[in-house]
Sequence to fold (159 residues):
Amino acid sequence: MSNFADRASVWLATGAGVGLVSPAPGTIGGLWGLPLAWIIGQSGPLSVQYAAVALIGLVSVAICSRAARVLGGSKDPQAIVLDEIGALPIVYLGFAEKSVAVWLVGWALFRLFDITKPSPAREMEKLPRGWGIMADDWVAAGYAWLVLNLLARFGWIGL
Fold:
């Protein structure tokens, strides 16, 4: 890593280095997404939360593109966990008050969909650079959001 921007992108993309050392980087590193989701949830009206998630997503595409190049040019290096961190807040959009069950079930659903990559998540990985790194996680988060909302709507999970 030759310069500060390269080092900073790797540090951010790996979740402050967690993705470089943990045995299950996406699962462990993705936990950083929970406090981010909480902060976004406190940021104001839903429109502000959507804007925050969109901005984080766009910035994350650039960071992941650079970090992937620095880490050897792999399409989606396992050490990069910013995709999980940046996508996880999508799961909780619209949940004003979140119980412990909502936090845990939302996170578990996100991991399930991120690991299994139901269509079109797997196809999104084919997008170029950081777009491919981030887009499959956005789809996984969307599926998790949908299921979490259905569970809440039918009273199967307490808010």
Summary: Residues 40 and 48 are 8 Å apart (CA to CA). Residues 46-70 form the longest helix (25 residues).
